[in-house]
Specification:
The protein has 334 residues and is of the alpha/beta class. The chain has 3 domains: 102 residues, no CATH class; 127 residues, no CATH class; 88 residues, Winged helix-like DNA-binding domain superfamily/Winged helix DNA-binding domain (Arc Repressor Mutant, subunit A, Orthogonal Bundle). Helices cover 50% and strands 14% of the residues. The termini are far apart.
């Protein structure tokens, strides 16, 4: 178990990332290739990404270099998921290149004790070897992660709608309580079900960044080094497979013509998350009518519904988000 200790200053500095972290998603996708956990939810991605990696000639390097550096288990080197990646892939890869050789050597030594390292891991201490690694990560990301960017962002947006409501209704206590069952908030300690060793992390006024991860499955993951900026990644909510291509197909249809005026208005109102009561007020229809329309939108794969406190919160799916974006672009150019 990981016990994260908060001070009052830390509670005032809790943040939830607004977009997926590209390097944490690289780590999570590599886990997906090494585990059957969550295979049903990511079946289409798994098949498409594997085929694309073979087609691009990257499969051998992924198996020989990246998977051993990101093994499924309790540890991988912290320098591979730097805080700078919050600003984008390029910033994150630059930070990997900028890590000191001493740090890289120490973290690879830890990995070797825990799970072993690739045969030529010592080359990563130097600039040339790390440049090859960075180029490999970039190519892998372009093939297995980047094509799913809009889908990932739509899931993050939906999750942030839930977290924002929890914060508004219950303050930081409400926000942190909402991460069950993987985390349990017992002020001032957040207890996290964790694969790594039993340990304590004292934030000491640094706050905590919570990073939603689309491709993660199961318990949260944190950095091993307690002196680094505190980060905790957590899995987004996946209940059904997320078919590849559905969002692209939906995006080709004009909004009102496809859905009708009322359902189009409901879909637009769901963009920031909404309950049945809020939708009824927003589009001036009865609660019964809202339930009917949301059921149709949900069955069409455009919205997702999840119980929140004493109501049901509707949020966009990636297909719904893609449809709204296409409609907005057409309105701007018409």
């Amino acid at each position: 178990m990981l016990r994260i200790h908060f001070t009052d200053a830390d509670l005032a500095s809790v943040r939830v990332a607004s977009k997926p972290d590209p390097l944490w998603e690289v780590a999570s996708t590599l886990y997906r290739f090494q585990s059957r956990r969550g295979l049903g939810a990511f079946a289409d991605w798994h098949r498409a990404a594997r085929e694309d990696l073979h087609r691009q000639g990257l499969a051998a390097a992924v198996r020989g270099l990246l998977m051993p550096l990101f093994p499924r288990g309790s540890y991988f080197p912290d320098f591979l998921t730097p805080a700078e990646a919050d600003e984008g892939l390029d910033a994150g890869l630059d930070a990997i290149m900028s890590a000191s050789g001493e740090r890289v050597r120490a973290e690879l030594s830890t990995l070797d004790r825990v799970a072993g390292v690739p045969a030529d891991a010592a080359r990563l201490v130097g600039t040339d070897g790390r440049r090859e690694l960075v180029d490999m990560i970039r190519a892998y990301h372009a093939t297995a992660v980047a094509p799913y960017g809009e889908r990932m962002q739509a899931h993050v947006d939906a999750d942030r709608s839930l977290r924002a409501r929890a914060l508004l209704e219950g303050g930081v206590d409400g926000l942190l309580t909402g991460f069950q069952p993987w985390m349990h908030w017992r002020r001032p300690i957040l207890e996290v079900d964790y694969l790594a060793d039993d340990r304590d992390l004292h934030l000491a006024g640094r706050g905590l960044l919570l990073v939603p991860s689309y491709f993660s499955w199961g318990g949260p993951v944190s950095l091993a080094d307690p002196t680094l900026p505190p980060v905790l990644t957590y899995s987004l909510h996946h209940t059904t497979p997320d078919p590849v291509g559905r969002d692209a197909r939906a995006a080709k249809a004009p909004l009102a013509a496809l859905l009708g005026t009322t359902r189009a208005a409901i879909l637009q109102a769901v963009a920031t998350g909404a309950t049945n009561g809020e939708l009824a007020r927003a589009v001036s229809v009865s609660a019964a009518n809202v339930s009917h329309h949301t059921a149709v939108l949900r069955d069409s794969g455009l919205i997702a519904s999840r119980r929140h406190a004493n109501s049901v919160l509707h949020t966009l799916t990636p297909a719904g988000a893609a449809l709204l974006r296409t409609s907005a672009k057409r309105q701007r150019t018409s």
